[in-house]
Amino acid sequence: MNRRIGIVGVGDTGSAIAFSLLLRSSCDEIVLNDSNGHLAKSQAADLEDAQFLSHTRVRTGGLPEIGQCDIAIVTAGVRPTPIQSRLELAESNIIIFKDILEQMAPLRKDLKLVIVTNPVDILTYVALQESHLPPEQVIGTGTLLDTIRLKNALQADLHMPATSLNAFVYGEHGHSQVIDWSNASTTTGVSLGLTPQHQDRLAKQTKEKAYRIISGKPGTSFGVAASTTAICESILRDRHDVQPISLWSPELGCTISLPAMLDRKGAHSLGIEHLQEAELVHLKESAETIKKAMGKEGLYTGQ
């Protein structure tokens, strides 16, 4: 079986994702597409020189072909400046997104759409509406990267491997994100026992890391690439991994990051019942932030 992943937008982020997928032999073939066709061809030629380390092959293709892949990753869009929030990108990127999805149609019925472009929660909703795919097949990278950043910060503070920590970030991939401190523990179930002051410092550090990165380079790419690769491998290899990703939540009325199980059929929400009252209140506030931004773009009417 020839497993194909298409990537729309192959600037710094898209090319980093392609490189990550290539080195890990995550699929059999990667198809690159960009509005700048010359860039797509150049990236494919450059990545071709790394194929000797992999079983994966890379080439370019049109948007209709991307729509027929096993997974289509969309990274195209305008990037935030160091003083912009991700939500401020909504208007411009919604226009770009709708055009891309229109050109990708008709979509393969079992296509999995993985949305990377910010604001990822809003654009995941746009992709869900425009693609007409089932909700479990439209996935935003959401707060998976924020969770990785949190675990890295905890690893540095607690001198414990990140892989031995259960600590997750939910909600908006942005300023209103929520850390599930009540359930944070080691993988053996021992509470982390952090003071409120320590929690606040780690939350601030996690939330602001992207802006520290883009103060010195055009955008984030490597962490995004690794987290996107993890999502794709969970789907293609039917791993049943649980990750915090953006998907449609009937309970909260928007696309928002919640724990979800990933398999070959897509993402399946595990709900919000496990959350304690404190985190649940903040999660609902985060959902309201997303819905307010959606309303400004004419995407949410409150019905």
From TrEMBL:
GO terms for molecular function: L-lactate dehydrogenase (NAD+) activity. NAD(+) binds at G9, V10, G11, D12, T13, G14, D34, N93, V116, T117, N118. The active site is at H173 (proton acceptor). Residues 143-295 form the Lactate/malate dehydrogenase C-terminal domain. SUPFAM superfamilies: LDH C-terminal domain-like (SSF56327), NAD(P)-binding Rossmann-fold domains (SSF51735). One of its GO terms (biological process) is lactate metabolic process. Coiled coil: none annotated. Gene3D superfamilies: Lactate dehydrogenase/glycoside hydrolase, family 4, C-terminal, NAD(P)-binding Rossmann-like Domain. Keywords: NAD, Oxidoreductase. Belongs to the LDH/MDH superfamily. This is Putative l-lactate dehydrogenase.
